[in-house]
């Protein structure tokens, strides 16, 4: 595998320098956009779980999940620094650009990982902490270190780490794992391959130069496009499962169907070009991000609408019961009055 090493001259700061100007570079190591998506899907699962979540517990849980996701990003960049330096898309990341040293990134990533798990185990619950630790381990050891450089199915198997946040969020709220978060896990798991393969079709030369066996490099663009279509077709019925199982309503169902049909249409157009149309691949990649965000937003909105209607219905029932009791009391009073009048 062709790799590169960092020239010493590119190191812009002394190791372990605490300059404020380096803070944005440390933040960039956490892959903020990826972290935000993980936190969002975890938050949706957390807020749609049964029961009333304590606001402070919810906040601590989300901070822990964010730190854990950020730690995974940092450790991924630490291990992949050499191939990041080869690829055009990643060459300006903090480590290959010489802004952060690899030892600094390793120390920062490990501190974040252990800190995140420690906070969650102490302040939330053990189940959530175990799931968070497993997600970090799976992303770094199983995906980054083992699979990424060995098999074109790296994003399929490794996608399990990115699909775990809803399960973690649900466990933070309930202390257990239920069927509902496992369905959400499956949706993200099936979404991940077409999302990343669409991106890899636009960066095939980059991956080939870095020696990363992404599917387009190993099997070609046409085979990759067909695989994208297969996963897109599987994603549609899977995304409707929350409605079938009764924990999502009409808004979510409509979003899942419309979004799934558009996803398949974009994948079909890409397949029609045998994966050669990079604009089609880029459109699918961009849409896939919006798709997942809209899907989980619809699930959250559906839950809030259902909770609001349940609350309003309960209040109406309570008011009706109160009115009935008042009516009965008035009737009883009238009856007693009439009885007394007859007796007198």
Please tag this protein with its features.
344 residues, mainly alpha, flat, Tetracycline Repressor, domain 2, 0% strand, 78% helix
Number of domains: 2
Share of helical residues: over 70%
Q: What is the second-level CATH architecture of the largest domain?
A: Orthogonal Bundle
- Which regions are unreliable across 5 or more consecutive residues at pLDDT < 50? 1-9, 311-321
Number of strands: 0
Order of helices and strands: HHHHHHHHHHHHHH
Shape: flat
Based on CA atoms alone, the radius of gyration comes out at 26 Å
Number of helices: 14
- Distance separating the two termini: 109 Å
User: What class, by secondary structure content?
Assistant: mainly alpha
Largest sheet: none
CATH fold type of the largest domain: Tetracycline Repressor, domain 2
> What is the arithmetic mean of pLDDT?
88
Beta content: under 5%
The fourth-level CATH homologous superfamily of the largest domain is UbiA prenyltransferase
CATH class of the largest domain: Mainly Alpha
């Amino acid at each position: 595998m062709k790799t590169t090493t960092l020239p010493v001259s590119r190191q812009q700061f002394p190791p372990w320098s605490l300059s404020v100007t380096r803070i944005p570079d440390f933040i960039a190591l956490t892959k903020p956009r990826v972290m935000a998506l993980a936190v969002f899907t975890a938050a949706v699962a957390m807020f749609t779980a049964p029961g009333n979540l304590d606001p402070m517990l919810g906040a601590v849980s989300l901070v822990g999940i964010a730190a854990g996701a950020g730690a995974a990003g940092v450790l991924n960049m630490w291990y992949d620094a050499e191939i990041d330096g080869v690829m055009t898309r990643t060459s300006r990341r903090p480590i290959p650009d010489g802004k952060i040293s690899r030892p600094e990134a390793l120390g920062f990533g490990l501190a974040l990982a252990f800190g995140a798990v420690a906070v969650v185990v102490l302040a939330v619950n053990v189940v959530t902490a175990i799931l968070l630790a497993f997600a970090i381990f799976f992303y770094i050891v199983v995906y980054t270190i083992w699979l990424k450089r060995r098999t074109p199915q790296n994003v399929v198997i490794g996608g399990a780490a990115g699909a775990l946040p809803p399960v973690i969020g649900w466990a933070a709220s309930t202390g257990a794992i239920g069927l509902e978060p496992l369905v959400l896990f499956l949706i993200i798991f099936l979404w991940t391959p077409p999302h990343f393969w669409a991106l890899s079709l636009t960066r095939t030369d980059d991956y080939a130069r870095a020696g990363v066996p992404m599917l387009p490099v190993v099997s070609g663009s046409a085979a990759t496009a067909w695989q994208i279509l297969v996963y897109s077709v599987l994603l549609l019925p899977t995304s409707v499962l929350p409605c079938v199982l009764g924990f999502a309503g009409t808004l979510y169902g409509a979003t899942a169907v419309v979004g799934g049909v558009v996803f398949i249409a974009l994948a079909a157009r890409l397949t029609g070009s045998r994966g050669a149309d990079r604009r089609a691949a880029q459109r699918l990649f961009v849409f896939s991000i919006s798709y997942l965000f809209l899907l989980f937003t619809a699930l959250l909105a559906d839950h809030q609408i259902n909770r609001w209607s349940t609350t309003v219905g309960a209040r109406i029932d309570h008011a009706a019961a109160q009115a009935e009791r008042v009516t009965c009391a008035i009737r009883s009073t009238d009856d007693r009055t009439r009885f007394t009048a007859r007796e007198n």
